[in-house]
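stage 2 :: seqdesign
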């Protein structure tokens, strides 16, 4: 079961999309065409692959806090607005929720 909020990561793109709940996922993603390498990261680090009909299915991949932090650093680096060394999180949940400010 997906634990919201989540981050959407798209193949070949360092930018992340924050999704507060399933409704946001459906709204944001209904026009996107997904590849096999696009996935959702939930607040526990569990990754979910995206089917063309927007169904999510759990992959074997579960990301650590360190890996999610690295993805957020890449995201912030692509925008060049934040000092990357100051980005640090104690949990995946904290890391995912830190992206909420961009969704507003």
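stage 2 :: out
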């Amino acid at each position: 079961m997906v634990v919201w909020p989540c981050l959407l990561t798209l193949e070949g793109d360092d930018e992340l999309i924050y999704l507060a709940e399933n409704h946001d996922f459906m709204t944001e993603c209904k026009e996107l065409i997904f590849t096999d390498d696009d996935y959702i990261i939930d607040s526990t680090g569990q990754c979910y692959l995206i089917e063309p009909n927007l169904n999510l299915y759990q992959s074997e991949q579960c990301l650590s806090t360190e890996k999610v932090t690295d993805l957020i650093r890449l995201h912030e680096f692509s925008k060049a607005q934040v000092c990357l060394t100051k980005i640090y999180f104690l949990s995946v949940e904290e890391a995912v929720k830190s992206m909420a400010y961009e969704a507003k």
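stage 3 :: structure notes
- The chain has a mean pLDDT of 87.
- Helices lie at 22-29, 65-79, 92-97, 100-103.
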